Amino acid sequence: MSGLTGIDLAVIIAYLAGITLFGLYVSRRVKDTEGFFMGNRRFGKALMIAQALTTGTRADYAIGVVGASYEIGMAGIWYQWMYIFSTPFFWLLSPIFRRMRYTTTADFFEERFSKPLGVFYSFFALYLFMLWQGTIIKGGALTIAGITGLPESWFIWGVTALFVLFGVAGGLIATVTTDFIQGIFIVILSFLLIPFGLAAVGGFSGLHSSLDPRMFSLIAQKELSLFPVTMLVISGLVGIVAQPHHMAVAGSGKTEMSCRVGWCYGNFIKRLCTIGWALTGLMAAVLISRESIGRRELAFGALIKMLLPSGLTGLMIAAILATVISSCAAYMIAGSALFTRNLYKKYLKTSADDAHYLLTGRIVSAVLTVGSLLFALYLPSVIDATVHFVTIVAFVGIPMWAGIIWARANSYGAWASIIGSSATFYLTRTLGWTQGPQLLAALLVGFSLVIVVSLLTPPEAADRLQRFFALLHTPVGEEKNMENARLKLTLD
What would the pLDDT profile of 169-209 be if each residue is shown by its tens digit? Predict the structure, then answer.
């Protein structure tokens, strides 16, 4: 096999066999839908950190940042550092997500606003999950194909079979338990190339002398200048609450503190890993000519092939596989929870037993993956996909922020905000506006509409608001206070 030795193959096979068998072993603990979708909400701090790190740190992210930094310098880091100013908010948001006691984010839109909004969000999130899985698989395929010389399609089908195997069997319990192991590989992925790259370019002094000083600036002259970076950061913060997998990432911990530590610390580790990706891109800019690779997203794989010795190349491929498997399995489980809980159980099969819904969730997990394969096979660019989902999820994040903070926000305002911000964004695109002004206009319209329309239309029913805010004001473990007040504790 081109680019791989027997030692490399042994490392890869050992990793794949070990992680799959371990995932299938822990899958025996899954007995019902609560265990499959939310891990029975029993994860401690260490596993919550691992879950946040691995679901938020993906091969396509590393490939995108390395490729962007290879072309425009350190400013490429903002394709993932757009969330750096959101990280402190995770500490504040985690108890809110845990106290909601929902299984999916669609539950929030249904309970806080209306059933139609819950259905809309379910379909929106299913689209996002398929897009994300496809982007992850595509990014991993680009890199491994560049190292091995094998067709991308071989990787796409092979790794999909693996994460479906233990994800469908073990649900969130298997996914999060294996995430602890995958997290180690993600750190390896982020920093393994750096010592070899620095040796090749002559250390940091050689790196600086070989590149234009502007390559070390966090603000680029093109693509990621100050205004686009600012709008990416703002959009990231607005949309972070509406990312569909975050209900499980932030709400499946045993305690509120477990959720806080997991979501905040796990993502902080990711911010450190992102520095490694950007430095790798700079070293690639010194060592690899653009003509030799064609597309900038191939720089990561080309550098691995150039620098790493036998054995470590296999370890790096295993690390890439770790990010793909952990992230895709988590998204697959979250997507199946959305379909099973918010669509199938409520509108198609309302009275089946829990075993039936567990089987349905497993089947849907596999079916959704087929949709993601289509994205993987036909996506044009990893970065384009990243910017696309950061943009559209922000439009749904506007009413979610409003619904949490402001009791007067209602479903009319939520609909107006989503439709108005989306229409503004795509209208300004047809007018030839660039990304930054498009986002600014869309967010201003969205926030204005959710406020104005909510004030001009009737508020939500008092019992709906009372039930929702009673959840938010009741710490985990104090549910009896709600029972004494005769309030319905939903979806616990």
Answer: 545 555 555 666 767 777 887 888 999 999 999 999 999 99
3-state SS class at 199: helix
Rounded Cα distance, 307 and 28, in Å: 41
Quickly count: other Cβ atoms within 10 Å of residue 17's Cβ: 10
Assign 327 to helix, strand or coil.
helix
Question: What are 287's two structure tokens?
Answer: 């060592």
Phi, psi of 191 (to 5 degrees): -125, -10
- Give me the pLDDT at residue 33, please: 52
Q: What is the rounded distance in angstroms from the CA atom of residue 118 to the CA atom of residue 19?
A: 35
Helix 299-307 × helix 193-201 angle, to 10°: 80
User: Can you give the pLDDT at residue 46?
Assistant: 79
Contact 407, 469 (CB under 8 A): yes
Per-residue model confidence (pLDDT) at position 485: 46
What pLDDT, in 10s, does the model give residues 352-399? 877 888 788 778 877 888 888 777 777 777 778 888 888 999 999 999
Q: What is the pTM of this model?
A: 0.85
Half-sphere exposure of 254 (CA within 13 A, CB side): 7
- Please give the pLDDT value at position 194: 94
Structure tokens at 404: 């949490």
Residue 397, both tokens: 């994040």
Look up residue 342 and give its DSSP letter: I
* Contact by Cβ (8 Å): 78, 232: yes
Q: Which residue numbers in the chain have pLDDT < 50?
A: 1, 35-39, 170, 484-492
Backbone angles phi, psi at 43, to 5 degrees: -80, 135
Chain mean position to CA 450: 26
The domain spans of the chain are 6-383
* pLDDT given for residue 108 in this prediction: 94
Helices 312-339 and 354-378: angle between axes, nearest 10 degrees: 130
Q: Residue holding tokens 């099973």? A: 340
- Which pLDDT does position 489 carry in this prediction? 43
How is domain 6-383 classified at the CATH fold level? Sodium/glucose cotransporter (1.20.1730)
CA–CA separation, 269 vs 106, rounded Å? 28
Q: 118 near 274, Cβ under 8 Å? A: no
Cβ neighbours of residue 356 closer than 8 Å, sequence gap 6 or more: 349
| Token pair recorded at residue 215 | 């390559």
> What is the residue-wise DSSP string for 1-70?
-TT--HHHHHHHHHHHHHHHHHHHHHGGG--SHHHHHHGGG-B-HHHHHHHHHHHH--HHHHHHHHHHHH
The distance between the two most distant Cα atoms of the chain, rounded to a whole number of Å, is 70
- Identify the pLDDT of residue 401: 97
